[in-house]
Specification:
Helix content is about 80%, strand content about 0%. It is mainly alpha-helical.
């Protein structure tokens, strides 16, 4: 069940991003709602796995894979649309490739990224990368930045009939603040992405030493 939720959030992310490229305000608003569902499912799949006792090494890897697909799709889409600089997805994708490659070596030796068999043995490294607190804070940062980026750059909203004059005027008033908030959140989220990747590199040294291939 948990793995099905992971698949579902990847599919919803694809649909949401497709809507972002239509230039249709209504579909862009739908993309905003779908993105919120994607993020909710991100937290729900782990809860379901624990409740239904479906935790496994495959589930742990598949959950990270789902996170990576969703995260990369959004960052790349935002860069193509022009709402974030191109260096943002370059950094995020490169970080993901490096950490996932190192985690695969640890997995071959019986260790997972998270959970009881986590590769993160150093307490500080574990806190930064594998703790529920760290993962929750990073998840919240991604939630805010994705939602605010979509909300800050809604296209042609003046011609979207369901929007009242009052609502549109209010949107125009808060839009500059949304854009500033989006820019700040982008830097915060990318910084967290890099900081959370460093412990993986540090902890991987012992697996590289033990790897005989």
């Amino acid at each position: 069940m948990a793995n099905l939720l992971t698949i579902l959030r990847m599919l919803l992310a694809v649909v949401a991003i497709e809507f972002l490229f239509t230039g249709n305000p209504g579909l862009n608003i739908t993309a905003l709602v779908l993105t919120l569902f994607v993020i909710v499912l991100d937290g729900l799949d782990g809860v379901v796995a624990r409740m239904m006792k479906e935790e496994s090494k495959f589930g742990s890897v598949f959950d990270i894979l789902g996170d990576r697909v969703v995260e990369n799709l959004y960052w790349i889409a935002f860069a193509v649309i022009g709402t974030v600089p191109v260096w943002v997805p370059m950094v995020v994708v490169s970080r993901g490739i490096i950490t996932d490659g190192l985690r695969s070596i640890a997995l071959s030796q019986g260790y997972t990224a998270f959970g009881s068999s986590t590769m993160m043995k150093n307490k500080f490294c574990h806190f930064l990368t594998a703790s529920r607190f760290s993962r929750a804070v990073y998840g919240l940062a991604k939630t805010l930045v994705f939602l605010v980026l979509i909300a800050a750059y809604l296209p042609n909203l003046a011609y979207y009939n369901p929007i009242s004059v009052e609502a549109f005027s209010y949107y125009l008033f808060i839009k500059p603040y949304l854009i500033i908030s989006a820019d700040i959140l982008v830097y915060i989220t990318v910084a967290m992405c890099i900081i959370r990747g460093i412990p993986v590199i540090i902890e991987s040294k012992r697996f590289l030493t033990n790897d005989k291939n």
